[in-house]
Design a protein that fits this description.
Order of helices and strands: HHH
Distance between the termini: 31 Å
Strand content: under 5%
Radius of gyration: 13 Å
Largest sheet: none
Number of domains: 1
Number of strands: 0
Shape: globular
Number of helices: 3
Oligomer: single chain
Length: about 70
């Protein structure tokens, strides 16, 4: 079972989610915060209706997406 690495970071990153509505370019930073809080290696925000390579993502998944 995964262990939450940093409850405080998770709380802070959840508060930052509102920033992504106003400034979509904030997604990579917010996702990076979420990854650090839960111990994930990376994240990407996928659209359900259209698949494009320019999805918001953390730098750690760039090499996988940019293949």
């Amino acid at each position: 079972m995964p262990i939450l690495k940093s409850p405080d970071k998770l709380a802070g990153s959840l508060l930052s989610l509102g920033d992504t509505v106003i400034e979509p370019s904030a997604w990579p930073h917010v996702m990076e915060q979420l990854c650090e809080a839960v111990g994930a290696l990376g994240a990407g925000l996928l659209q359900t209706d259209v698949r494009t390579p320019d999805i918001p993502r953390t730098p750690s998944v760039d090499r996988v997406v940019d293949r």
